[in-house]
Design goal:
Radius of gyration: 17 Å
Structural class: mainly alpha
Distance between the termini: 28 Å
Shape: globular
Helix content: over 70%
Order of helices and strands: HHHHHHHHEEHH
Strand content: under 5%
Number of domains: 1
Strand order of the largest sheet: 1-2
Number of helices: 10
Largest sheet: 2 strands, antiparallel
């Protein structure tokens, strides 16, 4: 498998888009990354169908790591991250992320794609048609510790299983269940995503190690060249996304988020 100049351009473009989404919407960008890698990037590299979906998931998580790290720093400076809540989410999230990547390694790629698509469609529908949101509330918020731990576990499982940062699940849960305003939820989400994607990536490296169908330049189910070429531009665009998010009204932010998930979910199912 050779990486052409066109492939390099594709990966830089993907990293640019994913970095912006990570900062603007508080998601790792996996909802965009996985379809692009699955239908556009890896087929042009002649990756074997036997491993293409798992390679998409593992590589997606690896690319999300620098995006989430950059986004976390930007949201910290903006005052959007409550680290006490992040810690409560991360501890169970780490366990969930590793377990999710383990379960995913034993399922067929076609099953994973279909499940991923349906979940995105469901979440996006709920968010788009939600009436006056909790994110518009004022005052202090203090989520219950037990509920926060459960949200972290679910977010970690989702992240590791589907190769995404977990923001597509954890943001709606923080807004609806923990009653955290949307701009705070976006900041907390991107911080959580850094830890979840790091652990999930390790899981995909371990479970893909030695697979004979994998192409060159891979570390388990992580394609190293894709990680580097898409990960670097994502760092710079993430900060721009955070700045734009601060100027956007909460309702508009939520609906942009929901529409993005809907389009990607339909694409993955059909």
């Amino acid at each position: 498998m050779e990486i052409s100049v066109i492939n390099v351009f594709q990966l830089v473009l993907i990293g640019t888009a994913v970095g912006f989404l990570g900062g603007f919407l508080g998601v790792g960008g996996g909802a965009l990354l996985i379809p692009l890698l699955n239908y556009w990037m890896f087929p042009s590299m002649k990756v074997s169908p036997e491993v293409i979906t798992h390679l998409c998931f593992g590589t997606s998580l690896a690319i999300i790591i620098p995006t989430a790290l950059s986004g976390s720093w930007a949201h910290t400076r903006a005052g959007n991250i409550d680290w006490h809540i992040v810690y409560l989410l991360v501890v169970p999230g780490i366990l969930g992320s590793f377990l999710g990547s383990t379960f995913s390694a034993y399922l067929k790629g076609s099953v994973l794609q279909t499940l991923f698509g349906f979940i995105l469609i469901f979440i996006s529908t709920q968010m788009f048609f939600q009436k006056k949101g909790l994110e518009e509330s004022e005052g202090q918020f203090l989520p219950r510790a037990f509920a926060t731990v459960i949200v972290g576990l679910l977010g970690g499982l989702f992240s590791g299983f589907f190769g995404v940062g977990g923001g597509v699940l954890i943001i709606p849960l923080m807004v609806r269940v923990l009653k955290i305003p949307i701009h705070k939820a976006v900041g907390i989400s991107i911080a959580f995503i850094f830890f979840a994607s790091l652990v999930g990536t390790i899981g995909y490296v371990i479970h893909g190690w030695g697979n004979p169908y994998l192409p060159p330049y891979t570390l388990g189910y992580v394609h190293i060249m894709s990680w580097v070429l898409a990960g670097i531009p994502s760092i710079f665009l993430s900060n721009w996304g955070v700045q734009l998010a601060r100027k956007t009204r909460p309702l508009r932010l939520r609906r942009v988020f929901a529409l993005m998930l809907m389009v990607m979910g339909i694409r993955m199912v059909f």
